[in-house]
């Protein structure tokens, strides 16, 4: 769509943010991918100063204007300019260039935002039904166009910590009018995610269910960036939780005392594509709405893949 100020298509790039809460101020920039483009500075003889005029120039446009071997970084300030003859003015003009934003645009760099299929040609059609019929090799297994598939790998995440991940888009602003780039808010499309196996992986490989923290220690101060820190005004008992991982997307969790009494039954039913499909938590409250006491507990996880049994300990 056209920018409401410049009335031009001014898409610049994408950014990825991460946070441990949904608050806008907690989101941290992880990486950015933007078009390789440059601001062109021109000398204003009336005001005796260098000024930005017009929109940023992408590298392809600059090479078309100044030659295939043109490198704007060789002309980076008023002491290093390129001189061009302007036939309309009948005089020479001088310009220099500065990067616009980060200019991170290498789609093959797998440490950044990169193409999943870097050698995939431009789509023959944007109609997915037509592509499935006539150009099936251009589609992923999910039926999306390979050309537009991108990936970024977040590393060194804690499996016990939920994260909020957001992808934003931004434009290149309007430098000539001193308007900074406009960007969507990270909170607009943030998704809560865990760095754990998806339910699909769990089910395909029949992975073992696990519980954490195990043992659960009431005196362990889990509220320090682990549980309930988002709600500091709540009593600690309201924030306590045991977490189940490697769950099938649909299953029933039953928790028993050492004597075999049913303490709680939890029905876990998520869409397989849900980021939390293999995860569930128990608030450590019994089916009689009482806080559970310390001791050894057994659990069973029943699904169409069978039944798994385990145990955990609560230390008060």
Brief characterization of the structure:
It is built from four helices and 19 strands. It has 316 residues and is mostly beta strands.
Look at the helices and sheets and give the structural class. Answer: mainly beta
For the sheet with most strands, the description reads: 5 strands, antiparallel
CA radius of gyration = 28 Å
The number of helical runs is 4
Distance between the termini: 59 Å
Detailed description of the structure:
The chain has 316 residues and is mainly beta. It folds into two domains: 11-193, no CATH class; 199-315, Immunoglobulin-like, CATH 2.60.40. Helix content is 8%, strand content 34%. The chain is built from four helices and 19 strands. The strands form five sheets. Strands 3, 4, 5, 6 and 7 form a five-stranded antiparallel β-sheet that branches. A five-stranded mixed β-sheet has the order 13-19-18-15-16, with no helix packed on it. It is elongated and about 95 Å long. The chain starts with 10 loop residues before the first strand and ends with a strand. The model has no long low-confidence stretch (mean pLDDT 90).
């Amino acid at each position: 769509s056209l920018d409401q100020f410049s009335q031009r298509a001014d898409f610049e790039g994408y950014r990825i943010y991460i946070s441990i809460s949904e608050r806008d101020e907690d989101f941290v920039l992880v990486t950015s991918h933007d078009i390789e483009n440059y601001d062109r500075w021109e000398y204003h003889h009336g005001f005796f100063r260098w000024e930005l005029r017009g929109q940023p120039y992408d590298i392809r446009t600059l090479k078309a204007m100044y030659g295939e071997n043109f490198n704007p970084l060789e002309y980076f300030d008023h002491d290093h300019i390129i001189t061009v003859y302007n036939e309309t003015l009948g005089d020479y003009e001088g310009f220099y260039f500065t990067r616009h934003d980060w200019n991170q645009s290498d789609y093959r760099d797998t440490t950044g935002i990169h193409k999943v299929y870097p050698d995939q040609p431009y789509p023959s059609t944007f109609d997915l039904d037509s592509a499935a019929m006539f150009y099936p090799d251009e589609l992923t297994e999910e039926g999306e166009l390979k050309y537009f598939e991108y990936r970024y790998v977040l590393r060194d995440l804690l499996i016990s910590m939920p994260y909020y991940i957001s992808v934003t888009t931004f434009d290149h602003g309007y430098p000539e009018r001193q308007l900074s780039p406009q960007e969507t808010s990270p909170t607009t499309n943030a998704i809560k995610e865990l760095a754990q196996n998806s339910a699909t992986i769990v089910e395909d490989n029949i992975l073992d269910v696990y519980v954490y923290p195990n043992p659960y220690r009431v005196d362990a101060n889990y509220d320090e960036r682990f549980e309930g820190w988002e709600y500091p005004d709540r009593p600690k008992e309201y924030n306590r939780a045991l977490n189940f991982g490697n769950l099938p997307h649909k299953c029933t969790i039953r928790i028993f005392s050492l004597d075999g009494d049913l303490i709680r039954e939890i029905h876990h039913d998520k869409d397989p594509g849900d980021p939390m499909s293999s995860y569930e938590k128990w608030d450590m409250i019994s089916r009689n709405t009482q806080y559970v006491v310390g001791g050894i507990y057994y659990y069973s996880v029943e699904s169409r893949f069978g039944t798994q049994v385990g145990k955990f300990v609560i230390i008060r």
